[in-house]
Every structure is written in structure tokens, then in C-alpha cells.
Amino acid sequence: MSVSNAGDLSSFASTIMLPFQPATVFHKVDVEINWITQEGQGTSGPIQASFQGTIQDPLSKAWTKTLREVGYCLTGDPFSGSATGGFSSPITVDPTSKTRSYAGSAYFLPANKTGSFCSGGIGSYAFMPMTDFATESGEEELRELFKKYPAENKDMERYNLLRTIFEDPKESTGSAFMFLAQTFTQNLDPHNFVSLGISLLHPLSRGSVHIASADATQPPIIDPKYLSNELDVEFMSRHLRFMETIAESQPLASFIKPGGKRNHEMAHVKDLEAAKDYVRTTTISNNHPACSCPMMPRDKGGVVDAQLLVYGTANLRIVDASVMPLIPRGNIQSSVYAVAERAADLIKEDHHIQK
Ligand SMILES: Cc1cc2nc3c(=O)[nH]c(=O)nc-3n(C[C@H](O)[C@H](O)[C@H](O)COP(=O)(O)OP(=O)(O)OC[C@H]3O[C@@H](n4cnc5c(N)ncnc54)[C@H](O)[C@@H]3O)c2cc1C
Hints:
By secondary structure, the protein is of the alpha+beta class. It has 2 domains: 2-288, Glucose Oxidase, domain 3; 291-355, no CATH class. 27% of the residues lie in helices and 12% in strands. Flavin-adenine dinucleotide binds at residues 121, 287-288, 320-321, 331-333, 336.
């Protein structure tokens, strides 16, 4: 079985300063939270989401404005699957109680037993197409890269599908993000940092999960094989290099201390080779493993059918991120909830229980 990791993630942190700014009134449109549509998002449900502090946060505003300045204005609802551009993202915190909203609190715990207060997380995102390949010479470069790193036979279908996404300048292939802390590092620096980074939305590398022993108490062997497909390094480093352009553009640039520190000696990724080295040295998982038991035809390597039943069994269902045939490009959590809700409906149908 194989596992996809969307996406591998690399970032750099720069020392931050608060520029002088006259008092400003913030509007929803300034921080790009006006994209929410009733059709796209619905109006009710057990899991609560909110934009904690986004409107008051000058950096959230600087992020979306900078993305507009560099040509990536939000083109639609980022949860629609087709929009590109910068936006402020909701986090799963109940806006009324200011407590974390998650499966336990939403479905199981009594109403007065919500989780502890949760702040932070990443609230500034941008779905980014591959700018490097948007020109005629860029298209040629992309064709050469695919020629140089062809698909393995057994992975041809997925590879060709992902290739159509990389070739479409309107599709996003990287998720740029910003958060007010140091990037994941062992040696925290005592200064204030803002981190800018990129995660790869459609990794071509595939890992594996295998049973290690006939003894069910033994853990499986999990090998994520991060960046084992060289194309992932090629694409990720180009995306990462563009983060330098974002960091240097206003208004975000005015928050970054001129000549200030970067949190990693290699974190200057202006040319492609430096970006590749940095990606190879610092990339970590975005913790979205999925696709190891995909819902696909059995002869194509599928493990479950459209009812989530494991092929060859009568009543064994898989209900988690492993059934997704392709990793979703956004944060995976809401898709996992959707799989679980669908599974609950299927089970109720089987047992003639009203939904
Ligand atoms: C550090 C981190 C940060 C993340 N941040 C985000 C984020 O900001 N946004 C987002 O969308 N996603 C995020 N994710 C990803 C998201 O949490 C996962 O994709 C999602 O939880 C996967 O759901 P799942 O049901 O497939 O697996 P899990 O949530 O891992 O559920 C598996 C369950 O099975 C149980 N289990 C395991 N073995 C056994 C056994 N032998 N018997 C019985 N039970 C067992 C485990 O205890 C667990 O409860 C993050 C993940 C991590 C690790």
C-alpha cells in the first residue's frame, strides 16, 4: 500500500518588527474573508470554525494585500477546489465559547465539556500556481522536466493526472503560508520571527505502509519516502523561491527587519540551486498522510469500494483519510470529517436507521 503526504513543507523565518502605521479600520475584504458563500460553506453543523483575531491583525491584512500586489488576488472560494490567491483561513475554534471545536467536543462530549482554549495555527494562506512555467520557455522547461523524470509504470495514471494540474497555469500546486512564530526548528532564537513557507499540494513521491509481521500487535513499517521523486524537489524549490518575492513586496516587507536575521543559515533561497538545497535540508511533513487504502477499482489497486467496504469482505469498512484516492489540496481535516459523515449515513442506511 502506498501513502501520499500533502504536502511536504519548507519555510524560512525572518525577524519581524512592527512598522509605524496610522490607525486603520479593517474590513472583511482587506483580509480576504469575504469569500464565504452559503452554497460553498453551509450554515450549520457540529464543527465550528471562526476567524479568531484576523480582522484586528495587521499582518493578516498585509499578507493578502501583498499577494494582490504580486498578482495573486483571490479568485473565488478557496474551498471550492479551483480558486487561487491569498486569503485568511478559518480555524476550528468556536466563535462563541472560544474553545477548540473537534470531533470529540462536537460529537461525543457533553456541551459543557469543550476543549481548552486554542489560539494560533496558520491563518494566512495562498493557493499558488507555478509562476515559473507560465511563459513559453517555462512550458518547455516543464516538458523537459517531465521527460527527465518519467512515471513508473505502476503509477502512470496518477502521474498523468497530476501532470495536467502542473501544466495548467490556473491550477494551484503550492500552498504558501505565513505565521507569527519561528519555523519548526530545534534551536529557537530569542527574537520575534514571522515564518513564510510553502507546502506542496500534489506531491509525486509515494511512500508505503506494509505489515511487518503476522503478529497483529507489531507496528507496520511506514516509509513516507519524502521527496523521493525529484520532481517534488524541482517544483517545491521554485515555489519556495517565489516566497522571497512575497517577503520583499509591500506591505509585508515593511514588517520584516531590513538586514534582520533568518532562522537558518541556508534560508536565503534566491536562486534555484540554493532553494533546492534548502528544500532537501529542511523539508518536513505537513502531517497529512492519506491514500493508503484508496476508494478505487480493485484492478487499479483500490482497497475499498464506493460503500467504503474493503474488497472481499462483507462488513469491514475503512473510515479515515486512507480512503482518499488523491490527497486533497487544502488542509485535509474537513475532508476527513466529510468521509466520516458519509460513512455514518451508509451505516445507517444498512441498518434502516433514519438519518
Ligand atoms: C501535528 C499535526 C498537525 C495537523 N494540523 C492540521 C491542520 O491544521 N489542519 C488539518 O486540516 N489537518 C491537520 N492535521 C492532519 C489531520 O489531523 C489528519 O489528517 C486527520 O486527523 C486524519 O484523520 P484519520 O481519521 O485518518 O486519522 P487519525 O485522526 O490519526 O485517527 C486515527 C485513530 O485511530 C486510533 N488508533 C490507532 N491505532 C489503533 C488501534 N490499533 N486500535 C484502535 N484505535 C487505533 C488513533 O488513536 C486515532 O484516534 C494535522 C496532523 C498532525 C499530526
